[in-house]
Design a protein that fits this description.
The protein is mostly helical. Helix 10 runs antiparallel to helix 12. It is extended, with a radius of gyration of 29 Å.
Length: 288
């Protein structure tokens, strides 16, 4: 036999509901109202995906029938032709020099600018705002566009490649360095200030020891990445192995192309190996 709740019980239950609603209003908000921004973003992403599939010529059949042509192309690349090995080796060395100079110069310039872009070390909000927006602008322009710009400024050659890497990495390093500085623990800084230290002293002894291993690790990774990027910007005339690659692809000299690709793969693997060793020496394996 079921017992219906009395009027008193219903009134008590209603009061509890009102009390819970007043204390925890967010718990009773409908899902679509609470997450309308995320749902709107997903809807826009789905529409953009559908638009791309319908208008960009995406065709699984083209990929399927193109696999045979890809297999024939790979077969024609063997055996590799190393008749011009010395020329390729010089181009690889030039590519590494472009990557090294571009990475180091960007890191040196971005290091002090990162403190201006970090909230906990900047001079004021205006400097912080303009520093961050400047990094966003530099980062928003692709490295190939920077290469084309500098080719028109300083002419064809590796110097344009160095400047292109410098401009691109300056925006990236500025953002990464400033974020690492902002994430530093405040207690060492407070300890230095409590002993009578200045703001500059607190940065030197409170923040730098924390962030230097992170910054060095980021620079090493950027050098690895820039080795590959320096191989690409040569296609537009900014020096390095890229010009040889583009010429061999254009003339379908596939055996020579395979030799260059193998040299690039070996070079990148060696750089990755040695940079990993250096990173482990700087931050320690226990930090990974």
């Amino acid at each position: 036999m079921s017992v219906l709740p009395s009027a008193h019980d219903r009134s008590v239950g209603g009061e509890r509901q009102v009390l819970l609603l007043s204390r925890y209003p967010t718990l009773f908000v409908p899902f679509y109202e609470k997450h309308w921004k995320a749902l709107s973003g997903l809807a826009l992403a789905a529409l953009l995906f559908l638009y791309g599939v319908l208008t960009l010529g995406v065709s699984p059949s083209k990929i399927f029938f193109g696999l045979g042509e890809l297999a024939l192309m790979v077969m024609r690349m063997f055996p590799p032709d190393a008749k011009q090995f010395n020329i390729y080796l010089y181009a690889i060395a030039e590519t590494l020099a472009i990557a090294l100079l571009g990475t180091l110069s960007a890191a040196v310039v971005a290091f002090p600018l990162g403190f201006l872009a970090a909230r906990n070390t900047t001079i004021n909000r205006v400097v912080h705002f303009f520093a961050r927006r400047s990094f966003d602008t530099l980062r928003g322009i692709d490295i190939l566009i920077w290469a084309l710009i500098w080719i028109n400024v300083v002419g064809l050659g590796p110097f344009a490649g160095v400047l292109a890497l410098f401009m691109s990495d300056l925006g990236i390093f500025g953002k990464l360095f400033s974020e690492a500085i902002e994430a530093a623990d405040k207690k060492p800084v407070e300890g230095v200030l409590s002993t009578g230290g200045t703001h500059a002293t607190s940065v030197r002894f409170g923040i730098l020891p924390q962030v230097m291993p992170i910054l060095l690790s980021q620079v090493l990774y950027a050098f690895e990445s820039n080795t590959r990027s320096a191989s690409i910007i040569g296609i537009v005339g900014a020096g390095g192995i890229g010009l040889i690659l583009s010429e061999q692809i254009r003339t379908m000299e596939l055996q020579q192309l395979s030799c260059v690709i193998l040299m690039i793969l070996v070079t990148v693997a060696l750089i990755d190996f040695f940079c990993s060793k250096i990173r482990f020496a700087i931050i320690g394996k226990q930090a990974l």
